[in-house]
Structures are given as C-alpha cells and as structure tokens.
From TrEMBL, chains A, B, C, D:
Reduced FMN (FMNH(2)). This is Chorismate synthase. GO terms for molecular function: chorismate synthase activity; FMN binding. It is an enzyme of class 4 (lyase). NCBIfam families: aroC (TIGR00033), PRK05382.1 (NF003793). It comes from Solidesulfovibrio aerotolerans. Its cofactor is FMNH2. SUPFAM superfamilies: Chorismate synthase, AroC. PROSITE patterns: CHORISMATE_SYNTHASE_2. This reaction introduces a second double bond into the aromatic ring system.
Length: 351, 351, 351, 351
C-alpha cells in the first residue's frame, strides 16, 4: 500500500534515494530457468543513462553498475526472489544545500512534505528520476522471461517540443538520438532542444510503446482491464500526464463507423490498440504517453520556502533538459512489467 | 485478481450480467456511522438511466430499483459489508438470438470468447454498460462517507462529436442535457447527435471530472501515484480510451517555464491538475477522459462468426447512440471510489 | 483489508447479518465450464443446518434456501462472478431486546463495540455462526471446481467434551451424529452432551480435516507457506482456538529420528501432514482444529453492561450447545477455499 | 503471491539464499520519524545467532552484520522504503556436494524440486533457517516503530524435549540459555539436549509469545481475524507445526462455564488469549507454537535420490540440534510484524 511495489505475480519492489548509499530492488515471482546475467540487465540500464540520447543530459556521471544478490544459480533463475543493487557513487549533496528550504515549482517537494512531514532535501529522494533505474532493471528481467514466448516491447519518441515525427520506423529507434521514431525529425528536434537549453527552459514530448506477441484473451474484465493496468503503470512514471490506448483522444472525435476495426484477416486497422473490453485481441498493443517538460529550469520562478514565505528560485544542479529520451526505456520497462505480471497471473506461461 | 473488485480499503465487488436474474455488489470497508438509505443511492442510479440525458437513449426501460441487504442498521452504516441488489426486470434476450454467433466489431465478443472459451451471448454480459449501475451505487456510498469531510466530485461533458464546450459552468451540469459543461453548446450537440442517429452511426466525446477538498499529502510515491490510481480507475470504464491529468497532452507541447505552476497564494494556475509527484497538493484534482463512440451501430460492418467465417453484421437491439451522458456519473463514481479508498488507506478519515 | 473477503484468485466475499434482510456472497475467479446448480450448493448448506447432527441444535429453523444471481449460464459457470443470496426468513429479534445492553462473556460484543463504536445487538451480527452459511456455499463451488482434478476434502469430529474417538472411519462421517470419526464413540458423546445441556453448559471438541489428491509442489516458501494459509483459514473460524498440521503439538515432544518421515514408497508415516517447507509433498494434507465450547450458556455469568457497570447475565435465545457438528462443514469449506485459491494461483488447473 | 513478502501496510520483502552473495530485505510502510540505526537492528540479529543460546549451535559463524541502504536520513526514518543487506561471508558450499543428489527426510528438498523443477543444493536455499535473519531485522524495525505506543512483545521457551517449564518468568528470558521461561528448568533441558546430541538426534519444543499494550478493537471480523493473522504468521515459520491462542487445545476440553472469561475489572483470567471474535479485547495477547525437532540428524535415514532411487542418508554439515532457542526471536519478530501491519492498516498509529 506504500507505493514501492509493482505487480502481484511478477512483483518488483524498489528502494533507494538519489543521494543515499544505494538503490535497488527485489523481483519476486520470476519463473525458474530463465537465463539471467548482470550484463543483460546492465545493457538496458546503460540505455537510460545520462548522455545516452541526443539531448544533452545531466552532468552527473554514474556507472550505474548492477549487482545480483540472489535468485540466480548457475546462470539461471531459481524461482526465488531476485535482488539487485546499484551503489550510488557520485553524490554531490552539497549542490542542494543552498536551496534546501525552497519548494521547487512543478516538483514533489511540497507534496512530500505534506505527506511525510519531512523530506530528504538532497535531490528528489524517491521522486528523483534516478529511481527509474530500478524499474529498468526489473523490466530487463521481465523481458528475459518473456523472450521465449515471442513477446517483445518497443518504445520510441514520436513528438518533442511540439514537433511530431512524420513516420514510425521502430526498429533502430533505441539507438537513435532521442530514441526518435523517425530519423528525419532529429535535426529539427536538436534545434528545438538547443533553443530550449539556451533559454534555460525545458521540453516535453510524446512516447509511443508497442507490445507484440501478446496472446488474445489476456486481460480482465470490468475494473481490472488490461488497458487500465497499462494506464496505471504508465501514469505512475514521474513526468507522465496523459495516457491513451490505440486511437486514444482521437477516438473521442471519431464516429462508430470510422472507429470500429472491421474483423477481417489480416486486420486493416487497429484503432482499438489491441484491446477490446479490457482484453487483448491478438493485435499489437499500442499506447502513448504525454511527458511534461521537466520542472527543473534555470528561469527564475516564484515560489515559497517551507515556512510559506514568498521567494524566488532558480534551480541549479545537474539536470536533464527533457525527460526524453531517458523516459523511453522506462516506458518500455513498465509495459514489460505489466505483461509479465498478467501473463503469470493468467497462467499463460508454462509451467 | 479477477477484475470484479475495486479498491483495497473501500472495496467494491460487483456481479451480474445484463440478462441474468440480478446485478449488484458488496462494499466492504465503509466507516460506521454514515447515514445511508436506499433513496440516496437511487438518486444517483436514476442519473445514469437511459433517457436521462438529452441524447435519445436506449429503448430499454429498467426501474433499476436498488435494495440494501446488509451493513445498515437504524439508518446508519455499521462498518460491516454493505450489500445491494438490483433485480433485472426487462430482459428481452430473444433480441440477441439472431446475431448470437456473430462477433460485433468494437465489442468484447471475440476477446471474451478468447479468454473464457464461452460467452453469455444475451447482451454484453459483464461487458454491458448495465454493469456500471453497480459502480454508480458504490460511488453513491463513497460520496455519503466523504461528504462530512468536504470532499466533492463533479463530472460533466466538455466535448461531443468533435464539438467542444467553450466554457465550463459546472454547477448545474448533471441536470443539463448531455451533462453539458456549457448550456450554450447544447443546440450544436443536439444537431450533431440527430445527424449521427439518422446515419445509424454513433458519437464519442470528452468528460472532465474535478475533485474538490482533497487534502494535500494524499497519494503514494513511485508506482502507486494518485494520478496512476485515477488513470487505472478511469481507463477501466468500458468506452474510455484516454486519460489525462491537468494539462495532460497539452503539457507535452509546453515548456517548463509555461507548464510549471508558480507556488503562490492564491494559486494562479493548475497545470498539474492538483497532483505533483503522485501526491495531492491541495488544489482541485482535474482529469479528462476520452470516450470512444459506442460500437453498436446500424451501419453494415464486416466481421466473422465465432467459427472465423467472414460475415456482415448490422447491430440491432436497444442501444444508446453515445456513451455520453450515461458515462458521466460513472466517471464521477470511479473518482469517488479512488478517493474513498485512498483516504481510508492513508488514515485521513477519522476514526 | 476489512476481513470479509477470502482468497485472491478464487475469491469469496461475504455479507449479511444474522437478523438483516439476507446474507450471501460473491465468488470471483471460478473457472468457466464448471457444472453448477443451486441444488448442489443447497446440499452442503443443509449439512450445516441446526439439527443436522446428533447434538440438539438451535431452535431456530431456517430454510437457508440459496439462490444464484449471476455467473452461471446454461448450467455451467461462465468465468464471471457467481453471486448467491440466502434470504433471512426467521428473525426473532425481540429475543435480544432484553439483554441488548449487556456484554456476553466469551462473545465479540465488547470487541465489536470497541472497534466500530456501535453494534447490531440483534444476535451476533457478522460474528454470528449464521455467517458461516456463506462460507459453506463458497466451499461447495470450490468443491465443484476441484472435483475433476481428483481433489477431495473430508472433515469429521475426533473429540468431543474431552472424549476422543478411538479410530477414524472417515467415509460416512458427514452422515453420522456429531460427524463422528468413529461410530463407536457416539453413545459416550451423546451422554456427555446431555449432561452439558442439563447443566446449561456447553462443550468443545476437535475436528480433523484431510485433503486428498493435492499435487506435490503446491504452496509457497517463506511467509506464505501452504500450512500458513491453512492456519489462517482455520483460525479464522469463529470458535477455533488452535490449529495443528500433521503431528502438530505432538511433534514438539518427538525427536528428529521419530518425527522425520522416511522417504519410501509407499509412505509409512505422515508426521509432516503432507507439507514440507510450506509446500505439499503429495501425501494427504492433515490438519486439526481445537473448537472452544460455545460461550452462550444458561449458567449465570459476571459481566458489565455497555457503560461498564457490573451485571449478571444468563444467555437465553436459541443456541447450539456446541459448535460441533455445525463447524465440521465449515472446516471442510475453508480448506476447499484455500486449495481452490492456491491451485488457481499456481496454475495447477487448466486452463 | 510468491511468498516472500509479509504484510500489506508494514510490508517486509525478503531475499537471499544461505549460500548466495547476500540476504536482506525491504521494509515499506514504516512511519516517518522513527529513530533507527544499524546498531538497533544488530542487537536483535545477534540474539538469533548460533551459540546465542544454551544449546550447542551450528559450527557456522557469521558476523551477520546488517547495513542500511535507504529510508533513513539524519538518524530517523523518512517514510520511504528501508532496505537492509547482510552479506554472506562464511559459505562452505563444498560441505553439500557429497549429498547434493539426496533428498533429506523432513526437509523441503523434495517439495522445492517438485515446485521449481530445480534447487540450489547448497544448504537449504530459501528454506534455510538463515532466511529468518531478515525476519528478525524486520521485526526490529517494527519494534522501534511501536515502542512509543507502549506495545511490546516478549517470547520465551516453555517446553523443550517434552519437559515443560513450571512457571513463566518472562523478564530475563531472552538472556537465559534456551530463552527459558523458568531458570529452574535449565539444568534438565541441558541434560536432555546433551543426550540428544550424543545420539545424533534432535529436539522440539514449545515457544510462548505475549503482546502487551495492544489496543482493544484491533483486528478484523470474519476471515481476517487477528488470531487468523497470528496463526498465518507463526505457522509460516519453518519448524512450526501448531499454533494456539489463549487456552488453545485445552479449550476443546473445557466447558463454556470454565472457558468463558468473566468480564470484570481487573480481569481474573485470559482463556481467550486477548482476542474475542477476532478482535483484541485489551488484555495481553497470548499464543503458543509447537516447534518440531529439526530434521538434520546424524542418525542414518531411508530416503531416495532426486531420480527416485532408494538410498540412505546421514546428514552432516553444520547444524543446530534444535530450532530452539534461535526460533524464539523469530516468533517475536513475526508477532511484531503482524501488529505493526494491522495497527497501520487500522489507523491506530498517528499520523
């Protein structure tokens, strides 16, 4: 009930502050017999590191080296909990001393204070983007478990700073700058990003994620629909403010005649995003998330201190200028976690 | 894990098919001492009945009379489970015999079959909109429990068939045709609805919901954010394909300087929709949902039968031409259920 | 979290007070395709009715007629929630008026008052033995689902009023007076029961339950052991004060050499009760529960009223003189519910 | 659902094999502001170490040094997950090579193999008693959180090898050999233990646990009774085969007149063990557990290998001769975890 565990059957529990000794997690419920190594997890972790995309990232350089502590024996999972740890090695807490009593607009400073009556002012604590390293590690284990079943998840950026990609060429997206869906849009995004950086400002964008190979029949009716679970997983990512499935908000402007997908082989459209009545229909599952511009900006902002006195703040520190592309592997990881959990829950994976 | 229970502390379990003997539910966890009558629940149920809005509804007329079976003694809740039942009185199953072997496009017929290996072909079974009566009844109990704490939830329609309302005048919205946010838009919506009906087609729209009085500090960090819970609850409504919080998808096109809400008293903006870092900040909580056009249309559609043979279908029966306005009280109910559950979980309600 | 739901995958939610309009429940998660009728449930319900055993039961005569409301179509379960209702028809609440302000020793009157700040003084409310009718109905559905897998559960009385049965002849036990394990002990138990009744006093006893056909490998390690789940299920029955598995408390007095079961075919002993390390080993699962004498006795007792003033109470009303044999089908039902839930959770049942 | 998490509101997730790199856990849900240090946890861990009791323990010597990784800032908990790690430093896996293909009677070797299709044959893996170090660490945090509320839990041994303690003098029990309830019984227990050791055999016993300061009204009705939760927690300890509350199995032989506790001030008896109808009545909560003799004995035993071939086994390695006294702090820890979880769930702790 305290928000740090995801899933019931493939269950990821995470811990760790951005400036504490370590962060990590425990995965409970992974099938036995899955080949798993630290290198396999590390590969996905490296993709969410600062500087891994085209947009200049944070100045903070962490090795983010993952170590497995349990649940793996002779190179395969045993069915017992898989614990992993990522030690924090580059913690410059003193950067935060200056502004420790000011609430940063758009951040969780004030709401954490309201909830807990205290906060670890060294960085964002649990609200830091660093927390997502544990999600990506969990997603890497889920991907390893699902691979033999032909289930794959791909995420990429379809819009940045208001500039959409014209087409989606998903295959190489994770290796492109910005994880861009379309290589042709990269120059325009680079220009947009440079302008934002020069202004001390930040950008938002839209990430799309596609899950292929999900068997028809997966999902639950009524409250616990597959799309409801995806919405929960994706809206639970820090900077996400909107989630849509298939045609999403465009469906609200369509009519039944244009929005219904005729049931033909092969399918001619996928307005439903692969889900009908909360249950997968066998087509690819498609979702999009709206990522807000990160709130840490160098522009002076009006705020208050923790005692309620008016103040002005200019956020320094080492920050990304957009959650994109670092959020892209996190979006992918969350969808993997949803599918691993539900496939286990619904007995779709042997044994 | 089977999808028919919502919440953990204020927990609603529902049952019932559209053409079975009855539908109903059990609410477990309501505080003792809440004044509760059948009339109070009935009032909200009547708001989601066919014909309650301006758009011509289904021809099916159900009294939808609710009966309380337990958990209330001398006019107040006792803290034990509150069971309610709504008997089905108008079941014309023979309407469905003709098309019982055809899969309706945009419906859950095929996915239920894939999941369960069988289906109750008399109407939508659990996927029927009738199921939402139990949600509304649960929401009415939640509203009664929350009322003394000054927490209120209001929902209204802000767009229909692609035509947005220009302004939001929330106060009388539940009593207006379409639960329209703006009375001025009603004539345009009526014209749009009539045209759709004449074409045998259907319309989608957008519903907005606002929760006032939610205390700052409510919510959980990381996976179980308040906005994640709302997204889960709202995406779990049958026709919903998108959910956004605060500025939502518009935030993806904003910059940090324009999207951050300055922390000033009184607040000057609410782009965050009342939630930062997954936790309420004390401002009103604002969400919007995209409602797809209902898939039951009189236009001929390509489909297959349950054996996979190509076929054509024209959906008859007694159907709404839009999920709006009937979905509006359901949206409100789901937000009430989220808040009741979380407020109890986080010890925000005495005792 | 409110105690009225059992299980996560085969989930029974119950409701209803002994003197309200009805009691009943909702079963969510039952596999589709299980043959199920009201008559099948009714048979098990009739076994827990007053007067069904050898010991004179309560004077209250309820038909306890069950009605199915959902989840069954054409004689088989559909996979959707199965709701059932048992209307209360014989409610003589006035019996309770006289003592409504006195706390009955050994009863939950005082603790419910401490918890809820109020209580339904007409009978035991939710703490009434009548609540167990819903458990037995749920167990009947579980039994129907498990039958094709060769899993059966049998319960019988092995001790009453301090007099043990010499041997266990389980086959006809449910049809014998007291559900006695051994027909030879019945005359002694009848004499003991008559003496207790004459004295206005009540008796306790011990019930044994055996589950056959449970596959090796069922159960979870560490906290959620199969024996832990059984202990939870059985200790959650009103009058139960002790639970043991296999040799139980006798194991505390044995040594490793005598308590270990040699691993031979066929097995020569079952001190482990079919469970090792929390996981079934394929032998029959054996548990015993200690049932306290029911606290409603005609002997004058010292107590207080709800304001704390000393008082004397003689409990009248219509009460059993022992929870045995009515508790026997409840013990069986709880074990069935545990197994149905866990077998589904661990993907041991197709599909 | 995979057994390695305990509790929902004060939630302990554990990981680690006896012969892997480390073991540890994550506590989620602890209130903020609780003073917490590694030394405080270490003190309880030292009490469950080999050689801490009077009975000769295992030859394995582990420092069991705990390190805190998150959730504590400036000496107090922050409300975020508290992760701890205990590195394994003394792993002599080669001890197990000889018997790696033999199933040890009374152990979980065969059932783990049936469940997972593989096992980490180096020691007991997750079924090792070493796993309980994480439980004790979790209990230490629970104790710290509950201390300001006057809630304390004490456990001690009341019977060993069939020899009961005559009286209970709880105060110094944790520091006595065997955690004996009565210092006078120690010589007899030492003689019994020496005889068992000489014979290569092992002993069982009975541990009692008392929780003081639990507020009246704590607990849930029906399925989720406080005693049901305690039974679940205690039966989930490796060697435990029986659990009783208050008079327990003795209640089965009493009558209502002798077993009912009169409601008088001060109380004259506590047959109920502080729980009525599943809810605490304000008296001390009393439970007892039956601990089986540990199955690792030097006596030759009949068994099979993992392929089903008959074999004989003599278990070597470094093993305790009884689970007592090492199980005593584990029993205490589990009761602390139950109370911490339930007190948070029921809003009995501020805020």
């Amino acid at each position: 009930m305290s928000g740090n565990t995801f899933g019931s059957h493939f269950r990821l529990t995470t811990y760790g502050e951005s400036h504490g000794p370590a962060l990590g997690g425990v995965i409970d419920g992974c099938l036995p017999g899955v080949p798993l190594t630290e290198a396999l997890i590390q590969r996905d972790l490296d993709r969410r590191r600062p500087g891994s995309g085209g947009l200049t990232g944070t100045a903070r350089k962490e090795a983010d080296a993952v170590r497995l502590l349990s649940g793996v024996f002779e190179g395969e999972t045993t069915g017992t909990p898989i614990a992993f740890i990522i030690e924090n090695t580059d913690q410059r807490s003193r950067d935060y001393e200056a502004a420790k009593n000011l609430l940063r607009p758009g951040h969780a400073d004030g709401t954490y204070l309201a909830k807990y009556g205290r906060r670890d002012y060294r960085g964002g604590g649990r609200a830091s983007a660093r927390e997502t390293a544990s999600r990506v590690a969990g997603g890497a284990v889920a991907a390893a478990m699902l691979a033999p079943y032909g289930i794959t998840v791909t995420a990429y950026t379809v819009e940045l700073g208001g500039i959409p990609a014209a087409v989606v060429k998903a295959d190489d997206a994770p290796d492109r700058p910005f994880c861009a869906a379309d290589p042709a849009v990269i120059p325009a995004w680079e220009a947009r990003a440079k302008a934002a950086m020069a202004a001390g400002d930040s950008l938002g964008g839209i990430v799309e994620v596609v899950a292929a190979g999900v068997p028809a029949g997966l999902g639950e009716p009524v409250f616990d629909k597959l799309d409801a679970r995806l919405a929960y997983a994706l809206m639970g990512i820090g900077a996400v403010k909107g989630v849509e499935i298939g045609s999403g908000f465009a469906a609200a402007r369509a009519t039944g005649a244009t929005n219904n997908d005729p049931i033909v082989t092969p399918p001619e459209s996928n307005h439903a995003g692969g889900i009908l009545g909360g249950i997968a229909n066998g087509q690819p599952i498609v979702a999009r998330v709206a990522v807000k511009p990160i709130p840490s900006i160098a522009v002076p902002q009006r705020t208050t201190d923790i005692h309620g006195n008016p103040a002005q703040i200019v956020v320094g520190g080492r920050h990304d200028r957009s959650a994109i592309p670092r959020v892209v592997p996190v979006v992918r990881a969350m969808v993997l976690l949803v599918l691993a959990d539900l496939l286990l829950a619904q007995r779709r994976l042997a044994p």
